[in-house]
Design a protein that fits this description.
Length: about 90
DNA sequence: CGTATGACGTGCA
DNA sequence: GTGCACGCCATAC
């Protein structure tokens, strides 16, 4: 497995419940701050349930996309204690 | 090795 | 705040 991809998966897996990280943050911890786009692609192809990909959001505060569960993303985050309004994270 | 691609990011109108 | 164009980078072919 590619080093970068492996790192990204590992980082996302470690995101604590009730917390969120931007694609950029994840990419940076994975070793490439500019590979935010790659993070998204990896998430889209990921199918692991232990992968809280719904905790990964845009750097601008928007929740972003979520193929498998679509609108569920914001709902899941809200369930974990994250305040969301109109698809927007309130920190 | 060159081209195409995508759950992003930033800048500008 | 919204919409559009261009840039970035690892992967797939």
């Amino acid at each position: 497995m590619a080093h970068f991809t492996d790192q990204v998966l590992d980082v996302v897996r470690k995101i604590p419940r009730g917390k969120t990280m931007s694609y950029t943050q994840v990419a940076r911890l994975a070793g490439n701050a500019k590979a935010s786009r790659k993070v998204g692609e990896i998430m889209s192809k990921n199918t692991d349930r232990s992968m809280p990909c719904h905790r990964v959001i845009y750097s601008n505060g928007r929740v972003g996309e979520y193929n498998r569960l679509q609108g569920e993303k914001a709902d899941l985050l809200r369930r974990e204690g994250v305040i969301i309004q109109n698809n927007h994270i309130i920190t």
